[in-house]
Automatic annotation (TrEMBL), chain A:
GO terms for biological process: peptide transport; transmembrane transport. NCBIfam families: PRK10419.1, PRK11308.1. It is found in: Cell inner membrane. PROSITE patterns: ABC_TRANSPORTER_1, ABC_TRANSPORTER_2. This is ABC transporter ATP-binding protein. It is a peripheral membrane protein. It comes from Paracoccus amoyensis.
Length: 543, 524, 278
């Protein structure tokens, strides 16, 4: 029995009002000791469901209909709650996606780690305290002695995730379940956490179940892979088998959609730039009163760039780099402290809101969150026609154009009369793009426009953007944190770090020959760097 | 001639009364404390400056006047032990009691009376001022025990001017030459009465104690009086039920409570003690507001108000329907006046005859802000008048607002009641004399009624010295006023006094509880 | 689940709806059910309920029909409740929207102004206002509206502040929509749910306030309202219990009904608070 964990025919039904009958159906896979198993799927595939079932965290109205979960020979589904409780933490540890909500904001970090041991009545007080320091050191946190007394909000995202890992490891469980633990982290931090998990698994000889949607991560750490779609396993095997020789069409489609890190064929910039920023500066000031100095955050520290018609400029950076601030500054959704923003040579910065308003039609934005960027109370038609109507165009001609754009972005015309909640995330982003195009803009700012989408949908939307750009000769500023996406769609890339544009150039060059140390670090941190998705495919499967 | 006999009788009665206690059946027991309620709490107890009910109630134990009046309205001696009226009715001579001392020990003499009538009340008391300026030529004190009032012309009601609220005797040695209103004695009143102020805890009680040097030997029987301040009507009823207070004066609790309490064991009740005041409730119709200048309209109003219903239902049976301006207990009242029985059809006929369309007018009806019975009364009147086609809106006012509106003649219909003070010349005429159409008080001729015949009759009655002539003139004036419906008189207000049987001798005169309680005693 | 189904799943809300419908029906048809003036004496005074089948709820001191008073009083109470709430909501929405959307010194100024009203106890201020402007239906409605708008303004301001930074609002800005249009066509429709819930509860409070004012004698003397009936009966609690019990029960039922409906609305528009599983 080298199998640490065996799932046999696990079937969990969904409540009657859901769109399919089962959350997961007929799941069967094994996890051996001393290996990392990755469960891959898009949102709604049911990949988190197994983890919840193992830990006994399923909601009361979703009980497994049939199947077994054998952990070290015992069927967890037949265990009583007290027995499960003693197993959690001691034999099986779990880490979640969002570390901030996994940690109690009112307890110090040290106390929380200690609590795991307290609950399981392990050791005495002195022994526990020593173990806390040991764990903090083990997960690579600096200065454990003082960090032990820190509260979660004082730590960065990566540090918090390390604390959560320390909590999961406190009692040296045999199985570690990690549910999207790095999805909410910056790419550099993600690389560090992945390293940590690999190290931990090696040192302790644990079995790790790693749930993710990112094939790059899979390529980096998995030993074996399970691919899920809509509650069913479509493919499983070793990482080499699944990633390089995928059999199932769905797997092939997913892998095809993964943005590959090769540089695009560049357009050569011609003529005068359509958008140019010169030395843009913006500092956020907050707090400060009689007795304390205000906190200052430099969002933009003198950013200068150029964008030409028909060109896609990518702005890449981690969180806090200022890339979103740059996008909003260009849109004049935010003011800047100094510098110039030149649109066709005219400086936009000194213009008042009412002076700038008629010019807004030339520079439009596609937003990040498909669920928040459309007014839930308005029909798609209204959402689309609001822009032109606000600019003096008659409702009738705006409606006609809206229908035209709807078909251009690949949606049915009857979407005009429907509401946003009837559409999926990808479809809503298409609406967002259509909305931006209603005013015939010359510049499009895409602010993390595909970051919230599943990888297959992401590929479709990127494809759409590309075809629209070719047709309409749009200039696009593409803001993203995902270098792989940037590499696929952008002609030129600018890398931002803490408000500064540290490097800029054609995307192929950035990838193959990064000069700035930060850029190098960023590129090195891309997960799955060593795996080329295109090698698996004999033909591109169109979305 | 008749006057002489009457004054002789008065002397005889005075002698008798000053020596013998009234109730000879039981032997009064000295000692004890009497608990009453005073509401609302009076601003001061100085009755020379303030004649509101609460001040008279508590202050009436401290101050006294020359005379008091029986339940039959006959004048009785108080500080004056006897008096004499000349044949021509122009000279009134009062002989004062012996050995009367002020609460500070100084003797009371005729000089105090002269000061009171000539200076103090002439300045501070509107009613006395009117009488004094119209009729009194001089007030003199030939000796310390005698006061002489000389009138410029006869005034048949003059002997009724000496009740506690009309003519309280003020100590000259305290008030002469001072600013009356800011004199510190207003807070520490000095009188001749059977009780003195011991302590006043604002918001809680007024505590009076026995005057050891009271001029009637052996009196008062009681040791102390407590006037308790209880702002809430329901609490007052409870206080009486629990025995915290022994007496409920008329107005202390609302009518339905009175009805309930009178049915309880161990509770005495009486409507006596108000004869001198005899308030009458009437609806004033402003004659300057159309269509009330038309007599038929006013007569219609009298016909459409069922005064029996008002008394029985709204006032819980406490009161007497009124037919005219004089209360049944006021002198010279006569029933021989035009009658206005409750008759809606007749009222409608009168309206039609008047040629007036009531629907053309929006009339304001101002209620009296004294409690729920008055609210019901206003609603009833509104409802009845609406049956004739009037549009009535009820105005809500507080006492200050009511007083202001009345004084300014700023009303269409309003309720009012006033004291009559025994003789019509004292308290009734003021509402109907055209010379009294003067703004500034709610208690004058606020409807602007002008009738030269009425003016003349009142004048003649007041100045006559022949009692039969007086009665005839007053009878005639009643007939004219009732025929004219100068006001819509509703009912004689009755006030029920409730007390515990252990309290004896409580209501002895026509001013009831305002009387000096020197002969009141508690049976143990 | 759709809105109506979520609402209907709340049994209390359905009961409230039925009760309120009954009250509305009676108020609407008071003129037909009880023609004539409720102020008219129609029967012997102080008739107890059940004493005469013509007057099932009895009569009051002046012989007025209690049932007629209740029916006509329903109109007054509901009218005042609804109109004062509408006025308060209007003022609150406008001020809250401007404060929440524009922020900065405009927000500071408006919030200080709002706080001024909030620091004065609402009922005491209503009493003072009505007393100053002499009691009438207009002054009562106005007084209630004046003391009720601050919570609405704060709610709307909070909603606007949070919605202002949402992406669809920013999208509207980028499209070139003017601020006023953004406020009222983009943001306001998304704040309607909490406003409606709050407004429904405010109607109940307004009815209670009007009843309290009338009870204290500050009501419009020419309008028969439930509060007035209780106030008139206050002195006769022991003798004639039906004078105050029936109007009191009417107020109680109406206020409960509105509160239940408000709760149902709240649950229906905030499904995530009930742990909806999707």
């Amino acid at each position: 029995m080298s199998e640490l964990l065996s799932i046999r025919d696990l079937t969990v039904p969904l409540p009657a009002t859901a769109d399919r009958r089962y959350a997961v159906e007929g799941l069967s896979y094994d996890l051996a000791m001393n290996e990392i198993l990755c469960i891959v799927g898009e949102s709604g595939s049911g990949k988190s469901m197994t983890a919840n079932a193992i830990m006994g965290l399923l909601p009361p109205n979703m009980r497994p209909e049939r199947g077994e979960i054998l952990f070290q020979g015992q069927d967890l589904l037949k265990l009583s709650e007290p027995a499960l409780e003693s197993m959690r933490g001691r034999q099986i540890g779990m880490i979640f996606q969002e570390p901030l909500s996994a940690l109690n904001p009112l307890m110090t970090v040290g106390d929380q780690i200690e609590e795991v041991m307290l609950v399981h009545k392990v050791g005495d007080a002195a022994g526990r305290r020593a173990r806390v320091l040991e764990l903090l050191d083990f997960v690579g946190l600096p200065d454990p002695k003082s960090l032990r007394d820190a509260y979660p909000f004082r730590l960065s995202g990566g540090q918090r995730q390390r604390v959560v890992i320390a909590m999961a490891l406190a009692l040296e469980p045999a199985l570690l379940i990690a549910d999207e633990p790095t999805t909410a982290l910056d790419v550099t931090t993600q690389a560090q956490i992945l390293d940590l998990i690999r190290r931990v698994q090696r040192d302790k000889g644990m079995g790790v179940m790693f749930i993710t949607h990112d094939f790059g991560v899979v390529a980096d750490i998995a030993d074996r892979v399970v691919v899920m779609e809509k509650g069913l396993i479509v493919e499983q095997g070793t990482v080499d088998q699944v990633l390089n020789r995928p059999q199932h069409p769905y797997t092939r489609r997913l892998i095809a959609a993964v943005p590959h890190g090769e540089g695009r064929q560049n357009q050569v910039a011609q003529g005068r730039p359509i958008i140019e920023t010169r030395n843009l500066k913006k500092t956020y000031r907050s707090g400060g009163g009689l007795f304390s100095a205000p906190r200052e955050v430099r969002a933009l520290a003198g950013v200068s760039l150029q964008l030409h018609a028909g060109e896609t400029l990518g702005i890449v950076g981690e969180s806090g780099s200022g890339k979103s601030t740059l996008g909003r500054a260009i849109m004049k959704l935010m003011s800047v402290d100094s510098g110039q923003i030149l649109f066709r040579g005219q400086d936009l910065v000194p213009l008042s809101p009412s002076q700038f308003r008629p010019m807004r039609r030339h520079i439009q934005m596609v937003f990040q969150d498909p669920f928040a960027s459309l007014n839930p109370r308005q029909t798609i038609g209204r959402i689309l026609t609001d822009g032109p109507v606000a600019n003096g165009i008659s409702h009738a001609s705006a409606a006609a154009k809206a229908r035209e754009l709807l078909s251009m972005v690949g949606l049915a015309e009857n979407a005009f009369d429907r509401y946003p909640h009837e559409f999926s995330g990808g479809q809503r982003q298409r609406v967002g793009i259509a909305r931006a195009l209603m005013l015939d803009p010359e510049v499009l700012v895409a602010d993390e426009s595909v970051s919230a989408l599943d990888v297959s949908v992401q590929a479709q939307v990127l494809q759409l953007l590309k075809s629209l750009q070719e047709r309409l000769n749009l200039a696009i500023i593409f803001i993203t944190h995902d270098l792989r996406v940037a590499a696929q769609v952008c002609d030129r890339i600018g890398v931002m770090c803490q408000g500064e544009l540290v490097e800029e150039g054609p995307s192929a060059q950035i990838f193959d020959n990064p000069t700035h140390p930060y850029t190098q670090k960023l590129i090195a941190a891309i997960p799955g760097r060593n795996w080329d998705p295109t090698t698996s495919l004999t033909e591109r499967v169109d979305a | 001639m008749l006057q002489r006999i009457r004054s002789a009788c008065a002397v005889a009665m005075a002698v008798a009364l000053s020596v013998t206690p009234l109730s000879a059946q039981e032997t009064p027991q000295p000692g004890g404390a009497l608990n009453m309620i005073v509401q609302p709490e009076p601003p001061i107890l100085m009755v020379g400056l303030n004649t509101q009910g609460p001040t008279l109630y508590a202050g009436g134990q401290i101050y006294q006047s020359l005379l008091t009046y029986g339940k039959d309205l006959e004048p009785l001696p108080l500080l004056a032990k006897s008096w004499d009226v000349s044949e021509d009715g122009l000279t009134y001579t009062f002989t004062l009691q012996d050995n009367v001392k002020w609460h500070d020990g100084q003797p009371m003499t005729a000089d105090d009376v002269v000061f009171t009538g000539d200076k103090f009340l002439r300045e501070a008391h509107p009613r006395w001022r009117l009488i004094a300026n119209t009729y009194v030529e001089s007030i003199t004190a030939p000796d310390p025990q005698t006061v002489v009032f000389k009138l410029s012309k006869p005034f048949s009601a003059f002997i009724y001017s000496f009740e506690l609220s009309s003519f309280p005797i003020i100590p000259k040695h305290i008030y002469e030459g001072t600013d009356y209103r800011t004199n510190p004695a207003n807070q520490n009143p000095i009188g001749t009465g059977p009780f003195m102020l011991k302590e006043w805890k604002r918001g809680q009680y007024i505590h009076l104690v026995k005057n050891p040097d009271y001029w009637k030997p052996g009196l008062p029987y009681l040791d102390e009086l407590y006037f308790r301040v209880i702002p809430d009507s329901a609490s007052r009823a409870i206080a009486f039920e629990q025995g915290t207070v022994d007496i409920l004066r008329g107005g202390d609790v609302e009518g339905f409570e009175v009805r309930r309490l009178t049915g309880m064991p161990d509770v005495e009740n009486s409507v006596e003690g108000w004869e001198m005041y005899s308030p009458v409730v009437f609806l004033e119709m402003n004659l300057k507001t159309p269509p009330f200048e038309k007599k038929e309209v006013r007569q219609a109003v009298m016909h459409v108000l069922d005064r029996n219903f008002i008394v029985q239902t709204i006032m819980f049976g406490i009161g007497q329907p009124a037919d005219g301006p004089f209360a049944a207990t006021t002198k010279y009242h006569t029933d021989d006046v035009p009658q206005y029985p409750y008759d809606i059809e007749k009222a409608k006929e009168l309206i039609a005859a008047s040629g007036v369309n009531p629907g053309d007018y929006t009339i304001r009806l101002m209620g009296l802000p004294y409690g729920s019975q008055w609210d019901r009364l206003a609603e009833y009147v509104k409802q009845q008048l609406e049956q004739l086609g009037f549009n009535i809106t009820i105005q809500a006012v507080d006492p200050g607002g009511w007083s202001q509106a009345m004084s300014d003649f700023n009303f269409d219909l309003a309720f009012n009641f006033t004291y009559q003070y025994g003789d019509p010349a004292q308290g009734v005429a003021r509402h109907y004399l055209s010379s009294n159409i003067v703004k500034g008080t709610p208690y004058g001729n606020n409807v602007s009624y002008e009738n030269p015949a009425v003016d003349q009759l009142f004048a003649e009655a007041a100045s006559s010295t022949d009692p039969d002539e007086v009665a005839a003139k007053y009878a005639e004036v009643q007939q004219i006023l009732v025929d004219d419906v100068a006001m819509a008189w509703l009912f004689d207000m009755q006030n029920v006094t409730l007390w515990r049987p252990k309290v004896r001798n409580l209501i002895r005169t026509g001013i009831g509880l305002n009387e000096s309680m020197d002969e009141v005693w508690i049976s143990k | 689940m759709s809105f109506t189904r979520r609402f209907a799943a709340h049994p209390g809300a359905l009961i409230g709806l039925l009760l309120l419908a009954a009250v509305l029906f009676i108020a609407a048809f008071a003129g037909l059910l009880y023609p004539g003036d409720p102020w008219q004496s129609v029967g012997p005074p102080l008739l107890p309920p059940g004493g005469d089948p013509l007057y099932p709820l009895g009569t009051d001191l002046l012989g007025r029909d209690i049932a007629a008073g209740l029916a006509h009083g329903a109109r007054v109470s509901l009218l005042i409740g609804v109109i004062s709430t509408m006025a308060a909501v209007l003022v609150g929405v406008v001020l809250g929207a401007i404060a929440g959307f524009f922020g900065g010194w405009v927000d500071d100024l408006l919030m200080r102004f709002t706080e001024f009203f909030q620091t004065i106890p609402a009922f005491a201020m209503a009493v003072v206002l009505v007393a100053i402007f002499t009691p009438s239906i207009t002054s009562i409605t106005g007084a209630i509206a004046i003391v009720s708008w601050p919570p609405v303004a704060r709610l709307v301001r909070a909603e606007f502040m949070s919605l202002k930074s949402r992406e669809f609002v920013q999208a509207a800005v980028t499209l070139g929509q003017r601020p006023l249009r953004i406020m009222f066509s983009q943001i306001l429709p998304n704040t309607m749910s909490p406003i409606i819930v709050t407004a429904s509860l405010m109607v109940a409070t307004a009815i209670l306030t009007e009843s309290s004012l009338s009870f204290l004698g500050l009501g419009d003397r020419n309008m028969m309202s439930w509060g007035y009936m209780i106030g008139a009966a206050r002195t006769m609690l022991r003798e004639a219990w039906w004078l105050s019990v029936f109007p009191g029960v009417a107020i109680l039922l109406t206020v409960i009904a509105i509160n239940l409906i408000g709760e149902g609305l709240n649950d229906a528009v905030n499904p995530h608070l009930r742990g909806r599983k999707d």
